[in-house]
Amino acid sequence: MWIPKVDRDKGPLYLAIADAIELDVVEGRLAPGTKLPPQRALAQGLGLDFTTVTRAYAEAGRRDLVEGRVGQGTFIKGRSPQQAIASAGLVDMSMNLPPIPQDGRVAQSMWARMANMQGPEATRLMLRYQEPGGALKDRVAGATWLSGRLPDVDVGRLLVAPGAQGALTAVVATLAKRGDVVLTEPLTYPGFISLAGHFGVRLFPMQMDESGPVPEALEEAIRTLQPKAIYCTPTLNNPTTRTWSAERRSEIAEVAAMHSIPIIEDDAYGALKRSPLPTLLELAKGPVYHIASLSKCLAPALRVAYLVAPDRASAIRVIGALRGTTAMASPLTTALATDWISSGLAFDFLDELRAETSRRQMAVAKIMPTGVVNSDPEGFHVWLDLPSGWPRGEFVARLRNLGISGVASDAFAIVEPPEGVRLGLGGASGVEELERSLTVVAALIKDRPALGSLIV
């Protein structure tokens, strides 16, 4: 008798059984015409109730995997594994990727610039170690990239790191040790949650309102928890898309300075803003570590981040941490980033990225139901506050069964996760594919499960 391998920790069990049927069809273990076990026999074999298996077979029928024959049982339908693979293809809305600009001229310029990177300098880059904090030429390029948000950056405080994660690793290693407390937004970047876990750093949430952290609550948290740092994404928070107000930024910078608490400002999406608000580093009267990565604002393959330390002494300490954790940013990737910035290509690419992001956000506004979606016209992800009656786990599972992947709030939460889901807009190949995906998502939001469907 066929007994599926069922992942009991991943979503509703009836969906897990249906997924197992689909996987075995795709991989050829269940050939067309194969008779599935009677529902009661499979329920006994899996140690589940009859209703769960009944729902699983019904779900498999909805996916066009099986057919019931009166008086005979349930059989695998006659379709090839290739057809099953095609129907199971996912649209990846789980990754928060910048969309690929549709203007071919930018792509042509990009390849032309890469072809020009030849000669003795390129050979030296491939065969030699580089300075952990970046060569002067690369730091100057970083200052140029940041100049729209941070004019007159002291390159002596600016370091080049292997992506935002590398920069965050070095800063956390500099500021905190195992058991120390760092304050952050209740829903925050999963990479930082993982990093804190690795270092044994305890994360506690700041109380938030629509404008950002509540200053009075932050003061109380500082007094009671004695944190070593505050980590935050004031512009286009991942995942909620919220941006702190200018007034609140000033207030939070003042509270942190009053208590001498360093701020780690993750400005991953700051370059997307055409009219950016002041950074915490600009407003700071106390120590702020400002991190701006190219991965989110240009391309994930450019694992380069620029880190501005509070002063030159702090920069030297961070260089030591970079040397001990990541050694250095990739010389070739850094050289490519410097070339793109110096030639102006990076800014042309950013303009195209902004335009494509706007087109995708227009699709969101046109298709998605009001009152559910949180978004920003200049960001390339959205946050769904699911309506009452929609558990996030079942929503993501149902979405996956419809061919779309998303991320439930559990990945971002440092406290009890809300019923929310993040969807990235950049993974679709174009606006048409995105519109098809959003139409599926919008229909699912309206199709709330009945109470009985939650009992498995």
Automatic annotation (TrEMBL):
Question: Keywords, A to Z?
Answer: Aminotransferase, DNA-binding, Pyridoxal phosphate, Transcription, Transcription regulation, Transferase
UniProt key word Transcription: yes
| Residues annotated as domain HTH gntR-type | 11-79
Top-level taxon of the source organism: Bacteria
Q: Does the keyword Cell inner membrane apply?
A: no
Q: Which Pfam families match?
A: Aminotran_1_2, GntR
The record's InterPro entries line, in alphabetical order, gives: Aminotransferase_I/II_large (IPR004839), HTH_trans_reg/aminotransferase (IPR051446), PyrdxlP-dep_Trfase (IPR015424), PyrdxlP-dep_Trfase_major (IPR015421), Tscrpt_reg_HTH_GntR (IPR000524), WH-like_DNA-bd_sf (IPR036388), WH_DNA-bd_sf (IPR036390)
Any idea which GO molecular function terms this record carries?
DNA binding; DNA-binding transcription factor activity; pyridoxal phosphate binding; transaminase activity
Query: What PANTHER family does its record include?
Result: HTH-TYPE TRANSCRIPTIONAL REGULATORY PROTEIN GABR (PTHR46577:SF1)
The family note in this entry says: In the C-terminal section; belongs to the class-I pyridoxal-phosphate-dependent aminotransferase family.
Protein name as it appears in the record: PLP-dependent aminotransferase family protein
